[in-house]
Prior knowledge:
The protein has 252 residues and is of the alpha/beta class. The protein is built from ten helices and ten strands. Helices cover 37% and strands 25% of the residues. It has a six-stranded mixed β-sheet, with helices on both faces.
Amino acid sequence: xxxxxxxxxxxxxxxxxxxxxxxxxxxxxxxxxxxxxxxxxxxxxxxxxxxxxxxxxxxxxxxxxxxxxxxxxxxxxxxxxxxxxxxxxxxxxxxxxxxxxxxxxxxxxxxxxxxxxxxxxxxxxxxxxxxxxxxxxxxxxxxxxxxxxxxxxxxxxxxxxxxxxxxxxxxxxxxxxxxxxxxxxxxxxxxxxxxxxxxxxxxxxxxxxxxxxxxxxxxxxxxxxxxxxxxxxxxxxxxxxxxxxxxxxxxx
Length: 252
């Protein structure tokens, strides 16, 4: 057992009558990439928002780097968030800002760096994700894959210890999706970051994960290596990973 960096301990969360999380317990170890799989609306994004402290559980605890998020004041929580970088589902770039300004947005908000210093770091992070010479381009001039890479460069700008990936391959063709998966693996090898990804793309999950956790009906149904999940005898897991319409998972 490695060193736990993120722990969800019996976490419950409801929105009115919608009981989204019903006792989620999950431990993510330092340096591993945990991929959380599950259907649309299953609560995967809600888990990410709890991990980064944007939501508070109705019951249970979230512990990050040894700190119980529920006990932190807002200033301490903001300081803890500096450990995180996040790649949003559709990159979430600011249309009115140039690429380098997008990458350096957190640096401008949270440091006293000059524009020249921010641009230097942005250029460095863009090079890390395979983008050179695009600093002055606007998001509208970029392909979907390039936007994802810019989003990843922005996530790396503050040199985080933990990277969160929200559906990293959504909206990409299979070749570009594989390129993003390779980039995620490269960032892990190069930077030794801890990663948490949510996805329903099993090709991506199998490729980038050290371990996979299956979320269904508000609970973690199974956790294991990609091979263990791929060969699971759990009927819920098997239906999801094979994409079958027949099984215990209810379809609407």
